[in-house]
Design a protein that fits this description.
Largest sheet: 3 strands, antiparallel
CATH class of the largest domain: Mainly Alpha
Number of helices: 11
Strand order of the largest sheet: 9-10-11
Radius of gyration: 20 Å
CATH architecture of the largest domain: Alpha/alpha barrel
Helix content: 40-55%
Strand content: 5-15%
Number of strands: 15
Distance between the termini: 22 Å
Order of helices and strands: HEEEHHHEHHEEEEEHHEEHHEEHEE
CATH topology of the largest domain: Glycosyltransferase
Structural class: alpha+beta
Length: about 350
């Protein structure tokens, strides 16, 4: 029954790929099959993290059904991206599906970019490390990220900034914190025997993201935090002080725990668990909070779907044995749904 539903849904999504380039629209009308993009996304562009985060699901669906159509759609996206010139070796967040040209040159490992990089690595893992093309694209991408986006603050915190309009913005989003786990996951099999380096980088990102939690009143991390002058790992603008039950920091704790078994990751996960229970639990479930620096926070009255799919799942796994969903056999998609290594 689930396979039938998956095929029906995929069939409804396929018209989104009917563009001059084969890069799909962000949205598709399930009745008419007409696609369109977000009005705010750089001159009608599609978004890297959206069209670049279909690979695992579509490849697995081709495996389940024997129908190559899904596989072909996502491989076409990869081939197109491989051929394109990349400024500084980085992938901009916007690509116009009509012209096949980049939109504005904004690059992020956080929102709008994040899971594209994650899926390059995971395509390789999911293929039982046979998909070497994906691994090469991942290695090239993280070398460019390390060269152009990763910096150390004056206080010694490693952070991943965002490339905007030709300069590096010294700000890191909560979403970007997933990258600590990604670097650790990709350490084994990395180029030039740099596995130890990437595991260390993952640990440094985990530490920075923990600091963003620790420097708040509620011990819950803000949506984004700056590294300017005397301000480090702290949100400055009011509209970046919220916490909406996001999983990325916990996700990185879990990967770091699996690869190092350093007890601090469980300690940090327990701190977050207690804070979520204390400040986010409401009568009908759990709610985001609007200001993590306020001792009397207000609720946003929303329980995001990723709270169940990811935040609680990663916390559960953090305190479980390694033989529950071992990483040699399972790869998690970007919403923490496990797919088998084949």
């Amino acid at each position: 029954v689930f396979k039938i539903k998956a095929v029906q849904l995929a069939g409804k999504l396929l018209p989104a790929f009917n563009t001059p380039t084969g890069i799909p629209w962000a949205m598709v009308n399930l009745k008419s099959g007409v696609g369109r993009n977000w009005g705010w996304a750089s001159a009608g562009s599609s978004i890297l993290a959206e069209f670049g985060t279909l690979h695992m699901e579509f490849v697995h669906l081709s495996y389940l059904t024997g129908d190559p159509v899904y596989y072909n759609k996502v491989m076409h996206i990869r081939k197109l991206l491989q051929k394109m010139d990349r400024p500084n070796g980085l992938y901009p967040n916007y690509l116009n599906p009509r012209t096949g040209r980049w939109g504005q040159h904004h690059t992020s490992v956080g929102g709008l970019g994040d899971s594209f990089y994650e899926y390059l690595l995971k395509a390789w893992l999911m293929s039982d490390k046979m998909d070497t093309e994906a691994r090469k694209m991942y290695d090239d991408a993280i070398e460019a990220i390390e060269k152009h986006l990763i910096r150390k603050s004056n206080g010694g915190l490693t952070f991943i900034g965002e490339w905007k309009n030709g300069h590096l913005e010294r700000k890191m989003g909560h979403l970007t914190c997933f990258a600590g786990g990604m670097f650790a996951l990709g350490a084994d099999g990395s180029r030039d025997d740099k596995g130890g380096h990437y595991l260390q980088l993952g640990a440094e990102i985990a530490h920075t993201c923990h600091e963003s939690y620790d420097r708040t009143t509620l011990k819950l991390g803000p949506e984004a935090f700056k590294f300017d002058g005397g301000v480090e790992a702290v949100a400055v603008r009011q509209n970046e002080k919220y916490y909406i039950l996001r999983p990325e920091v916990i996700e990185t704790y879990w990967y770091m725990w699996r690869f190092t078994h350093d007890p601090k990751y469980r300690q940090w996960g327990w701190e977050a668990t207690q804070a979520i229970d204390k400040y986010c639990r409401v009568s009908g479930g759990f709610s985001g909070v609007k200001d993590v620096y306020s001792s009397s926070p207000t609720y946003d009255d929303v329980q995001q779907s990723f709270f169940l799919a990811e935040t609680l799942k990663y916390l559960y796994l953090l305190f479980s044995n390694d033989d529950l969903l071992p990483l040699d056999n399972w790869v998690f998609n970007t919403e923490a749904h496990p797919l088998p290594v084949l």
